[in-house]
């Protein structure tokens, strides 16, 4: 790997130095296009190394760090922040919605509202009353998945549409006004990371340029006006699509290396913008946000020399137990059916001494196959309480994947209606109450 000298200018007192596809025009996305997997009985023994595989001297970000003063405490650790975040809700299939037209040239001309509601339906644009409703139910965190390639110009260094950034800023501001935490990420952009191609340490690597250009613009908009309750998540479920190891199995080391390098580029880009972003807590995903042994063992905490305390959260997704929660099959067998998932994550978190956010979890509403729908309804309530209790006692933050889907089928993860008055049916209300009970235990 070529070594390139870091040259970063910072204030004199300082030193130098990680749900998701759409199947058809009107279908709503489920979790993350996760395919059926075979679960092994015991987690693979973790690799006993927590040290970054990317030494500082091999990085090649050449950015000037802003001298603006941060109001985010330098000594606020990721563990401290996660302990305050409660439970969360995903604004799914909204800012992350995209279509073939947005990828093929419509990205610069499409109507902003039409893009936002492409998957959740016209009339379901995000409103301040929706945010207030989410808060009233007891949620303290909202994750906003954002797809950037659909509104950015690849021929102009991925310049993002200003009206899109302004619309996102409006929604983020509504959340901050409710004194909630908010997470924004890069979602459905995985085809542009090019993990399986070339060497991401090289400036000409297109995936590197995508991450650098997108996040340079995002952090310029979201900085000094936003305190520690705004969190950036580098990439969502970063992976190579359509390969045998997309969701399970052994990932080539070259892809893991490229992912770790892109996450380092993300951290360096955020830090170089200075101000509040110098000490902002950040989320980094495993490969595909997966909890398979190879993804957890391949996770590397990026270098962050401007901070003396850890500011990094590990981001993973789990729909446990998978066949029941994600696919609507069989019956729920209780908390014991999720122990492999939680134990695997916990072992990795303890080994790395890093907090964890489960950025997506849920249970699908619709029973499939021979599964009984009435039984499933009651078990979804039991599962929600079990899941949050098991996660919370380990210090994990849970963020429910709400994709706005309420119709029968394989996309029915919605619990709160987007349109006013944001109705919640009886089962969804019981699930929300169960989530809050799980948090309290």
Structural description of this entry:
The chain is α/β, with parallel strands linked by helices. The protein has one domain (56-440): TIM Barrel (Alpha-Beta Barrel), CATH 3.20.20. Helix content is 30%, strand content 9%. The chain is built from twelve helices and ten strands. The protein has helices at 78-82, 100-104, 112-116, 128-136, 162-177, 206-221, 253-272, 293-297, 322-325, 339-352, 373-392, 426-440; strands at residues 88-90, 141-144, 152-153, 159-160, 181-185, 230-233, 282-285, 312-317, 356-361, 397-400. The strands form two sheets. An eight-stranded parallel β-barrel has the order 1-2-5-6-7-8-9-10. A two-stranded antiparallel ribbon has the order 3-4.
CATH architectural name: Alpha-Beta Barrel
Structural class: alpha/beta
Q: What is the fold-level CATH name, i.e. the topology?
A: TIM Barrel
In DSSP terms (H or I, runs of 4 or more residues), the helix count works out at: 12
Order of helices and strands: HEHHHEEEHEHEHEHEHHEHEH
Report strand %.
5-15%
Q: What's the overall geometry?
A: globular
**How is the largest sheet built, in terms of strand order?**
1-2-5-6-7-8-9-10
Reading off the top of the CATH hierarchy, the class is best stated as Alpha Beta
Total domains? 1
């Amino acid at each position: 790997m070529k070594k390139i000298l870091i040259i970063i200018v910072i204030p004199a007192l300082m030193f130098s130095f990680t749900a998701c596809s759409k199947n058809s025009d009107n279908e709503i996305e489920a979790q993350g296009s996760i395919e059926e997997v075979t679960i092994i009985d015991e987690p693979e023994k973790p690799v006993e190394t927590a040290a970054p595989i990317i030494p500082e001297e091999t990085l090649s970000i050449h950015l000037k760090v802003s001298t603006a003063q941060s109001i985010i405490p330098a000594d606020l650790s990721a563990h401290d922040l996660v302990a305050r975040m409660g439970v969360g809700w995903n604004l799914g299939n909204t800012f992350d919605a995209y279509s073939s037209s947005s990828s093929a040239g419509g990205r610069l001309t499409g109507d902003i509202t039409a893009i936002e509601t492409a998957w959740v339906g016209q009339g379901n644009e995000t409103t301040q009353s929706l945010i207030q409703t989410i808060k009233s139910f007891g949620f303290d965190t909202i994750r906003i998945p954002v797809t950037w390639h659909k509104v950015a110009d690849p021929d102009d260094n991925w310049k993002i549409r200003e009206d899109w950034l302004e619309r996102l800023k409006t929604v983020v501001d509504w959340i901050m006004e409710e004194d909630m935490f908010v997470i924004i990420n890069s979602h459905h952009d995985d085809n542009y990371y090019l993990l399986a191609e070339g060497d991401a340490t090289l400036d000409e690597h297109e995936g590197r340029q995508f991450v650098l250009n997108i996040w340079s613009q995002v952090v310029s908009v979201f900085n000094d006006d936003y305190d520690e309750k705004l969190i950036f998540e580098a990439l969502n479920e970063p992976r190579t699509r359509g390969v045998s190891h997309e969701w399970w199995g052994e990932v080539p080391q070259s892809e893991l290396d490229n992912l770790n390098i892109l996450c380092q580029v993300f951290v360096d880009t955020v830090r170089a913008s200075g101000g509040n972003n110098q000490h902002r807590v950040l989320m980094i995903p495993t490969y595909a946000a997966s909890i398979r042994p190879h993804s957890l063992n391949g996770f590397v905490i990026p270098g962050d020399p401007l901070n003396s305390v850890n500011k990094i959260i590990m981001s993973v997704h789990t729909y446990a137990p998978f066949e029941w929660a994600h696919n609507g099959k069989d019956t729920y067998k209780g908390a014991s059916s999720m122990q492999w998932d939680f134990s695997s994550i916990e072992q990795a978190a303890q080994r790395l001494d890093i907090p964890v956010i489960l950025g997506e979890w849920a249970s699908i509403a619709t029973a499939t196959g021979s599964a009984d729908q009435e039984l499933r309804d009651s078990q979804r309530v039991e599962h929600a309480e079990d899941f949050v209790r098991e996660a919370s006692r380990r210090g994990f933050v849970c963020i429910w994947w709400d994709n706005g889907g309420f119709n029968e089928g394989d996309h029915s993860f919605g619990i709160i209606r987007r349109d006013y008055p944001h109705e919640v049916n009886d089962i969804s209300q019981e699930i929300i109450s169960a989530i809050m009970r799980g948090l309290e235990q």
